[in-house]
Amino acid sequence: MAYLATLTLDRGRAAALLAVVGVAAGLSVHAVVAALGLGALIGQAPSIYEVLRWTGVAYILFLAWEGWQPHKENSPAHARGTSGSLMWRGFFSNVFNPKSIMFFVSVVPGFVSYQAGDRSLPVQIGLYGAVYVAIATAIHGCIVLLASELRPRLMTGSRQQAIRRFLSVALVLVAAWLAWTTRRI
């Protein structure tokens, strides 16, 4: 969510909405993985979970570092912001999100009706996943719309670099929070 707000303030509504599509695709991967039963594998394999967790933390730190850099409209970093790359950035920011992984591994199965011989389990998990993706995408879209309304007031003149740096620090704090709250005890 912090990434989407930062992207909206930096590049505008259209760019951030492209990232929302990527975020929804990342969430959809989690739903499919859970429906196929691979979520249980991730839940039982601490090494796989740890790799995914630290990859997510590192990616958020990369986004923070990128946001900290001086903003130049014609810089190679800004030019990379094509529609495809923005979608991929949204995808990676969420497919490696350990909170989302844990949600599908530990929370979604609690809502599923387990019965011996029932083959509808993947369908149930898939349906819950689809509902979750739809709700999360609506929330992410609202964040982008709100940030785009604030953008003209926040991203003018000398404020722009200070806001970018503030949001970069916020992403570092999110990465630290994510690393702390998703650790296995």
- Quick one: how many beta strands? 0
Note the quaternary state here: single chain
Sequence of secondary-structure elements: HHHHHHHHH
- Overall mean pLDDT score? 82
Give the uncertain stretches in residue-range form: 74-80
Summarize the amount of helix as a percent range. Answer: over 70%
- Rounded to the nearest angstrom, the radius of gyration is 18 Å
Please indicate the percent range of residues in DSSP E strands (runs of 2 or more): under 5%
The number of helical segments is: 9
Based on secondary structure, the structural category is mainly alpha
Q: First CA to last CA: what distance?
A: 26 Å
Largest sheet geometry: none
Any idea what the shape is?
elongated
Number of domains: 1
Any overview of this molecule?
- By secondary structure, the protein is mainly alpha-helical.
- It has one domain.
- It contains 9 helices and no strands.
- Helix 2 (13-35) packs across helix 6, helix 2 (13-35) runs parallel beside helix 7 (98-107) and helix 4 (46-68) packs antiparallel against helix 9 (159-181).
- The longest helix is centred in the C-terminal third of the chain and has 34 residues, at 121-154.
